[in-house]
Amino acid sequence: MQQQPSRVKRQSERNVTMTLKILILYLCAIPVLQKVLTIISKDETETMIVSFSKMLTFFSIILAIALFWVITNYVVTNKRIRSFVEVSALYGMCLLCYLSTGISTSNYKFIFALIVLMYSMELGMKFGMCMSLVSGLSIVAGDLLSCSESMRSQMFQSDLILFGSFCLLAYIVGFFSERNRKLIEELKDSVNRDSLTHLFNHRYFYEYMHGVMDAPVEGMHHYILMMDIDFFKAYNDTLGHPKGDAVLVQISNICRNLFSDRTVFRYGGEEFAITYTATDAQEAVKIADHLRTTIAMTPFEGEHLLPGHNLTVSIGVAELQVNDTLTNWIERADNALYKAKAFHKNRVQLYSSVHDRFEHLDSNNDDERIVSIKTLLSVINSRDRYTYNHTDRVVHYCETYAKYAKMSESQQKMLLYSAYLHDIGKINVPQEILISEKKLTPEEWEQIKKHPVDSAEIVRGIRNFGEIAKIVRQHHEKFDGSGYPDGKTGTEIHYLARVLALADSFDAMTSKRPYQRAKSFEEAFEEIRRCKGTHFDPDLAEVFIQAIQTRYVDDRSNKK
Q1: Which of 48, 301, 335, 500 could be joined to 475 by an S-S link, Cβ 3.0–4.6 Å?
Q2: Using H for helix, E for strand and C for coil, what is the string for 241-283?
């Protein structure tokens, strides 16, 4: 997992200050060492071994203090304990330096100014003033106890001046340090917040989310909620951008009221991101749906001019998985949002992939057939993302139809397997045709029309999938015989192939393509009714429309 830049920067600053403190520590040790060497040189009775032992003992004590300090800083997580050890070690060495160099006659009283300076910069004015007080009292007490009575008055005056200098140093350095720190925080906040909504922005979102991933909450799961305002472009085009900005601010305030300000982000344009924790996916969806409902029930100026006469949002939800990356997590939430908008908007969609939904199709998920299908879909996904997403939506529509029509379990499985595999033959279509943003030429269209036959050939190679291969081959046949590849008519076309044709055509009509405007669900229903008896089975067409209306249109109306 990539470490966030701010954490690396903070670690670098900490390493620098740690180095400076160690230098102060050894600076204090130099006068003490000189004192030890002077004592050793005066004692002529000592052997070289004894003298060396004393020096070694001294250096060992200093090294032990330094090592203990460093280990405490990098191992102990409690900041108070860490700070106490650090301050005690520095102050102790300064005091030892002062005591070992003559106390009242010491030329190293200034050494206390170093820790006053360091901690005024690092911990602020208040802590610096406290260090000034402790240092000043230590010097005054030492001088009063060690100097002669005749020198006390003079020494006390000089100590007061030194004490005052410590306080002045702590005040000046602490003041500017705190002001600088506050200015940096204000600048960081300004850079990290969106100027319109005052929510945290896209840049800070990534920095914050790394911290979320590094801080698991016991018994809870992390979720990303990606939210997009439905028909916002139409709102802006109709009422103007100032009104659109007002809507963004209003929705931002709703999000801020329902979630912590620090967990809500303006991801870009009319898209928002929110991170939160929940006990399970059901609770996560419930939280997201509460947000959706709150926005749907909030009055917005001019919302009656929108297609649904109501300003709504679509929401995608994705859970943080084990060994996940932030990029993959966000991509799953985006895919869920895309799916929510594709299925008639104003809805919450929990992320699920095509592969995930195989779990309910077969109790033996290691079955070689399932492995074969997953492999084929992975190939399609790598070559043509549109076809992969199209397959995902067609499966949804087929599943909706199967449940509404109360199909048997065996028929449901057969229909869904066919939906998963109906476009697998596009593996043989050149990639430049699959991803072309231009209207296809007649020659390119002929190559596309081969995919039902190729799909059937591939599917026939999977054990016990002979009938599914027949359904896949026939999903572009038309009720009046004008379809391809075999020109079959009416009930010559497999019953499930007729259902699959409806789902496939419905998604093609309601999906945006570079050369074709996406139809609304209502426009697609009208087109299906117009083509009953020619392209589509007239009886199945009405059942399909009712199934989709019940799941995506009526359900949408009930949620307002």
Answers
A1: 500
A2: HHHHHHHHHHHHHHHHHHCCHHHEEEEECCEEEEEEEECCHHH
Rounded CA-CA distance 89/119 in Å is: 13
DSSP letter at 195 equals: T
pLDDT of residue 3: 42
Question: 49 CB contacts (<8 Å, ≥6 apart)?
Answer: none
* Token reading at 266: 């303006």
How far is the C-alpha of 325 from the C-alpha of 271, rounded, in Å?
A: 21
- DSSP designation for 513: B
Structure tokens given for 29: 């040790």
- Against a cut of 0.85, is the pTM above it? no
Distances (CA, A) of 229 to 327, 338, 383: 23, 12, 30
CB-CB contact of 132 with 169 (8 Å): yes
pLDDT at residue 485, rounded to an integer: 94
Cα dihedral 67, 73, 78, 82 sign:
positive
Residue length, the chain?
560
Work out the percent of the chain whose per-residue pLDDT is above 70: 82
DSSP secondary-structure letter at 355?
A: T
Amino acid code (one letter) for 504 = D
- With CA atoms as reference, report the closest residue to 478 among 486, 469, 470: 486
* Residue type at position 389: N
550 contact partners, CB below 8 Å, separation of at least 6:
404
User: Which residues lie across from 271 on neighbouring strands?
Assistant: 228, 268
Distance of alpha carbon 179 from alpha carbon 172, whole angstroms: 11
**Cα–Cα distance between 493 and 499 in angstroms, integer?**
10
- Count the alpha carbons within 13 Å of 321 in the hemisphere toward its beta carbon: 14
What stretches in the chain show pLDDT beneath 70? 1-16, 32-78, 353-370, 381-382, 514-515, 553-560
Quick one: tokens of 133? 């007080």
Which tokens is 195 given?
Answer: 């100027």
Sequence-distant contacts of 148-151: CB under 8 A, at least 24 apart = 151/104
- pLDDT for 515: 65
DSSP string, 23-92: HHHHHHHHHHHHHHHHHHHH-TTS-HHHHHHHHHHHHHHHHHHHHHHHHHHHH---HHHHHHHHHHHHHH
313-319 and 348-350: which strand pairing?
parallel
224 Cα distance to chain centroid: 7
Residue in this structure with the two tokens 């928002």, named with its chain if needed:
272
- The SS3 call for residue 532 is strand
d(CA 144, CA 148) in angstroms, rounded, equals 8
Task: Single out the residue of 320, 500, 312 nearest to residue 399, CA to CA.
Answer: 500
State the Cα–Cα distance between residues 192 and 186, nearest whole angstrom: 10
Query: How many helices and strands in the chain, by DSSP H and E?
Result: 22, 5
Buried b (16+ CB within 10 A) or exposed e, 277-295: bbeebeebbebbeebbeeb
369 burial type by CB count under 10 A (0-12 exposed, 13-18 middle, 19+ buried): middle
pLDDT tens string 163-209: 888 889 888 988 888 888 888 777 777 788 998 999 999 989 998 99
